[in-house]
């Protein structure tokens, strides 16, 4: 077997790890994160810390809009939360209602005009919108709106909702219901006016959204870790098809969709995206990932000297695999957490060995050892090959790869930045062929049943465990109406 590293450009933008679509690194890109506050005098500060906790969901841009009851104060910028919001700037964001957003550029352009929340003037005052997800029929609706006179200011699908609301002759809540009934996709929306906050989840619950309380204030976040950060109490998840309205009279629970749809929360949230200290549907991510590793060990045991996980998302699963097998868990790889936004282009030599900019093998740990390498997924396969070769170069005598998800064969249309199926290695090659392609001694994937059982246990009422597994089994929970413009990723 050849142990040579694959060469090629890993940076196409101005800095390492810039959202660069199909030319980016061989990992699934984070989605986006939203955070909302209703009726807290320090809404902006709470949003700052909440967005900081959600930073892993988007590193391209951050934004916040705050209302004092009569006017909006808002700011958006490119970069990390701590870069976008300075101390002086935060003092200008006064008010007790706020929505915030962190974004990872995917199908939308990476530019300030697409940073959220999007802010508009309409007949009843100010309107701000923030979302995580993707509207699959947005191209069709957008074309209809443009033909009837609408002028769009961004390339973001989120703007479609604002136009649908603004063009309705009904009040805000009924107009929002009509708009949500028209769109198809996976989404979690926060919509704010000067004195109201609307919160909505798509009819299948594809994108996560939770509600908490801090004193008398209500808070909303893509993940519970953001609520924990500010000391808020978790109340519950927002239900699929639910529309919450918060105004001067308090919280009103409503729905925009009364049909019964199968629940289909994105399985990749459990496998990869969410922070390990977050809970979704009552399940802790770290515990679920440990169970995935344990189930992987039962399904695909291999004798080895040590188990290591690809940092950071696979460490929990690696611990589970090690505990199940009795093979020691070791920190065989170290992630450099400070490479995310370096504006200096690396040398050609480092470019060719680009994975080492973010990941290094611990030679004294893996040298002379048979290694089980746990990872969460294989997308194109190039990064897996680089990591396997990196472990071999550090002296590992065998590298056995175990993936704690089924083969990723199909693109996502609900908010994850994925290539089309022609670039997904599992849709083109068999497991044996992928094993040879990534230069591993053996390769196994977790079974769909094993994944479902690890996350939700044995649920006789729903064989899919309330999960969307379309990227594995091609069973998409919604119709796919692209209007001739098929788009992948998070178009918020």
Report what the structure shows.
The protein has 492 residues and is α+β, with helices and mostly antiparallel strands. The protein has 2 domains: 31-261, Aminohydrolase, N-terminal nucleophile (Ntn) domain (Glutamine Phosphoribosylpyrophosphate, subunit 1, domain 1, 4-Layer Sandwich), CATH 3.60.20; 283-472, Rossmann fold (3-Layer(aba) Sandwich), CATH 3.40.50. Helix content is 28%, strand content 24%. The protein has 18 helices and 23 strands. The strands form 6 sheets. The protein has a 7-stranded antiparallel β-sheet with strand order 3-2-4-1-10-9-11. A 6-stranded antiparallel β-sheet has the order 5-6-7-8-12-13, covered by helices on one side. β5 (118-122) and β6 form a beta hairpin. α5 packs across α6 and α9 packs across α10. 52% of the residues are buried.
Short description:
The protein has 492 residues and is of the alpha+beta class.
The amount of helix comes to 25-40%
CATH class of the largest domain: Alpha Beta
Q: What would you report as the Rg, rounded to the nearest angstrom?
A: 23 Å
Count the strands? Answer: 23
Distinctive features:
about 500 residues, alpha+beta, Glutamine Phosphoribosylpyrophosphate, subunit 1, domain 1, Rossmann fold, 2 domains, seven-stranded antiparallel sheet, six-stranded antiparallel sheet, about 30% helix, globular, disordered N terminus, metal-binding
């Amino acid at each position: 077997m050849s142990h040579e590293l694959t060469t090629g450009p890993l940076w196409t933008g101005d800095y390492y790890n810039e959202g660069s679509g199909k030319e980016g690194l061989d990992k699934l890109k984070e989605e986006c994160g939203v955070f909302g506050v209703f009726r807290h005098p320090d809404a902006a500060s709470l949003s700052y810390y909440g967005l900081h906790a959600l930073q892993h969901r988007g590193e391209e841009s951050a934004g916040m809009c705050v209302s004092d009851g009569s006017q909006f104060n808002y700011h958006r910028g490119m970069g990390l939360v701590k870069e976008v919001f300075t101390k002086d700037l935060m003092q200008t964001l006064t008010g007790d209602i706020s929505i915030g957003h962190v974004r990872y550029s995917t199908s939308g352009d990476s530019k300030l005009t697409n940073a959220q929340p999007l802010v508009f003037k309409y007949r009843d005052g100010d309107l701000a919108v923030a979302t995580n997800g993707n509207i699959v029929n947005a191209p069709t609706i957008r074309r209809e709106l443009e033909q009837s006179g609408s002028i769009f200011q961004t390339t973001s699908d989120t703007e479609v909702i604002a136009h649908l609301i603004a063009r309705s002759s009904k009040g805000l809540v009924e107009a929002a219901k009509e708009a949500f009934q028209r769109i198809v996709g996976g989404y979690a929306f926060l919509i704010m006016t000067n004195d109201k906050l609307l919160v909505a989840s798509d009819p299948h619950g594809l994108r996560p959204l939770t509600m908490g309380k801090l004193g008398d204030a209500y808070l909303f976040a893509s993940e519970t870790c953001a609520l924990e950060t500010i000391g808020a109490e978790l109340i519950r998840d927002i239900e699929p098809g639910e529309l919450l309205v918060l105004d001067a009279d308090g919280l009103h629970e409503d729905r925009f969709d009364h049909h019964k749809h199968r629940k289909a929360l994105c399985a990749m949230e459990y496998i990869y995206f969410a922070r390990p200290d977050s809970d979704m549907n009552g399940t802790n991510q770290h515990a679920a990932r440990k169970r995935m590793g344990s189930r992987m060990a039962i399904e695909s045991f291999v004798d080895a000297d040590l188990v290591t996980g690809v940092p950071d998302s696979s460490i929990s699963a690696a611990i589970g695999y090690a505990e199940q097998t009795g093979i020691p868990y070791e920190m065989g790889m170290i992630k450099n957490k400070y490479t995310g936004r370096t504006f200096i282009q690396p040398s050609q030599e480092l470019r060719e060995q680009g994975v080492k900019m973010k990941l290094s093998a611990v030679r004294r740990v893996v040298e002379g050892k048979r290694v089980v390498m746990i990872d969460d997924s294989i997308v194109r396969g190039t990064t897996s090959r680089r990591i396997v070769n990196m472990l071999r170069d550090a002296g590992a005598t065998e590298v056995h790869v175990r993936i704690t998800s089924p083969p990723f064969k199909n693109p996502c249309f609900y908010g994850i930045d994925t290539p089309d199926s022609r670039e997904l290695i599992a849709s083109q090659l068999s497991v044996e062929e992928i094993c040879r392609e990534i230069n591993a001694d053996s390769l196994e994937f977790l079974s769909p049943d094993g994944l479902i059982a690890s996350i939700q246990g044995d649920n006789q009422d729903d064989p899919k465990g309330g999960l969307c597994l379309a990227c594995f089994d091609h069973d998409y929970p919604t119709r796919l109406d692209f209007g001739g413009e098929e788009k992948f990723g998070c178009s918020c």
